[in-house]
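Re-running DNA-binding beta-propeller fold protein YncE to confirm reproducibility after the cluster update. Everything else is unchanged from the original entry.
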Amino acid sequence: MGMRSRLLAAAVLVLATAGCSTAPAPAPTEPPPAAPPTAAAPTGMPPVTDPHNVYAAAGANMLSDAVRGAKPLVYVPETKSGDVQVIDPTTFQTVGTYHLGGELQHVVPSWDMRTLYATDDTTNKIVPFDPTTGTPGAPIPVVDPYNMYATPDGTSAISVAEARRKLVFYDPHTWQEQGELPTPDCAGIDHADYTPDGRTAVFTCEFAGRVAVVDLEHRTLLRMIDLPTRNTMMGPQDIKLAPDGSVFYIADSDQNGVWVLDGAATHVVREIPTGGGAHGLYLSRDATRLYVTNRHEGSVSVLDAYTGDPVAKWWIPGGGSPDMGNVTADGTQLWLSGRYDRAVYVLSTADGSLIRKIDVGDGPHGLCVWPQPGRYSLGHTGITR
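Result of re-run:
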């Protein structure tokens, strides 16, 4: 979270470092519920090709025509320096540093995967990057874009206005505002993911210990769901839909683990301990593994993406603060920002070994690995389906 956002959210909130856990996570004691029936998808949303794996079209090297001209690059937005640092993933060398100012949070791919946007929630702007050159364009005014997503049919870009507790919808081509949805009880509105049919979104509320369930078609708030333990200092963070749509996984930093929400987004099923400061959630290219970054203890927990069972735990040598990123197009590497260590980590997805630690600027956050496989992007640091 940005400092301004925390101060606006509540004057009494302070950054609390969660305790470290080194014990492996126990296996869940009950299986996830079956996936709910799938309703008709919104017009314009590419159909799900495999109900058992909504990410089936984003497998290894399944690059669409939209991204074939993109340079393979890694974009590192830095909250403290106000820079986006661009790294060549083949040489691990910085090939560009662009000072955009403000508090840069995430680099987000557009729905059509042809533009990347660096989001800045302090000066209310997004800055487009051309993926074919890796260079920025002119800034675009957007209200409080802490994070940004796209509706699954591509008709709207959504600014997650964290400090203002609302979602702001934009035309993704003209950037004219389409409307907004207040979420007054979702302090620290943050990350999101969608049901397989693309009609419902679940947004995490970091400072409220709950999630907001949103009807995207009617742009209405369906319900708020309190998590079993309502952590309100550094609570629910990233969220990821299981490949078969049966559950949502929700990382909770203060809980040091992952909550499991049913696929219909009505109630929490169980909890999976992972490690200190559970934060980011990323899938392997074949969608069989879920990588959970434990930011406060310098580790990554590997879970079975369907069952939540623990598979492995990878430790960053010398410690670190793994935060956000993604896997490479071929699925062999996991790139993560080191939020508190001015670093980027490159891990092997075969065994979790550290391939390279790269020095970057101050406060690296929502790192984007590009290009990504898939037919369309839902936003954040590259959620593609």
